[in-house]
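hey
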């Protein structure tokens, strides 16, 4: 049995040697390769410290584009503005010293008439218009007052017109200009503290009244049917289509005298005003 064991042991040794010869030894090169392969999974980062492998670059969403604030539209500066209804032949004189209201009605008609102007100019017609205005007036002096004036303008198809009293002179002039710009019709001016009638046929201003509420009136165009006579107390009559400054107009366009004729209107500057 001893010889048999010895032979068996020798056989195992030979077999083990054969197996070791069939295995591929891991050399220095392969070890270096394995080390390089394993180290390739790390990436250097700032400071020389290796970090974990990074994947493909991430897509970053673009930053939102800020919309610039809208630039406010600059407000246009007021420009010179003018309105003039007058044409040659529109003026009519009053044929008596009492018929200023009737003549003013004829002038107002001619200013807005587009058939050639001057169509209302006769003495007989002026007398008839004065009677119409007088019948529509309540006046202790038995004449034609501003209410009769406004009533006839409305009755003959030029209205509506109404009588208004404005306490402040500057605002009265602006009210008249604004009404003209709105309606395209003339304004009646009650002159000489309620004793006379003029027609405002145009104006010049800084700023269009329909666009600039704070427009300023620079000139007023007027028709005084008493021209060329005027008044020793109030001054000369301006020529037809004269452009007066507000200061010049103020010498004859004054506050209405409350005792002149009966009225519920407060004291102020009287206008026979066109309405839309």
């Amino acid at each position: 049995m001893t010889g048999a064991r010895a032979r068996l042991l020798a056989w195992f040794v030979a077999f083990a040697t054969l197996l070791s010869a069939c295995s591929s030894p891991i050399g220095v090169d392969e070890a270096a390769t394995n080390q390089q392969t394993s180290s390739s999974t790390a990436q250097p980062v700032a400071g020389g410290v290796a970090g974990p492998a990074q994947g493909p670059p991430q897509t970053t969403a673009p930053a939102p584009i800020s919309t610039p604030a809208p630039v406010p539209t600059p407000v246009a500066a007021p420009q010179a503005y003018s309105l003039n209804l007058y044409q040659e032949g529109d003026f009519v004189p009053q044929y008596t010293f009492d018929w200023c209201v009737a003549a003013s009605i004829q002038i107002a008609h001619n200013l807005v008439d587009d058939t050639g102007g001057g169509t209302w100019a006769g003495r007989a017609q002026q007398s008839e218009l004065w009677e119409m205005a007088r019948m529509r007036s309540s006046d202790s002096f038995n004449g034609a007052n501003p209410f009769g004036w406004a009533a006839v303008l409305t009755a003959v198809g030029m209205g509506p017109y109404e009588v208004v009293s404005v306490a402040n002179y500057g605002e009265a002039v602006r009210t008249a200009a604004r009404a003209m710009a709105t309606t395209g019709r003339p304004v009646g001016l009650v002159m000489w503290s309620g004793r006379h009638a003029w027609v405002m046929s145009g104006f010049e201003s800084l700023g269009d009244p329909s666009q600039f509420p704070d427009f300023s009136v620079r000139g007023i165009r007027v028709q005084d049917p008493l021209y060329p006579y005027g008044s020793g107390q109030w001054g000369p009559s301006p020529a037809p289509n004269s452009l007066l400054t507000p200061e010049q107009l103020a010498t004859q366009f004054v506050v209405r005298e409350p005792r002149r004729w009966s009225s519920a209107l407060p004291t102020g500057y009287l206008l026979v005003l066109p309405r839309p």
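The first helix runs from residue 2 to 22. The longest strand covers residues 196-206.
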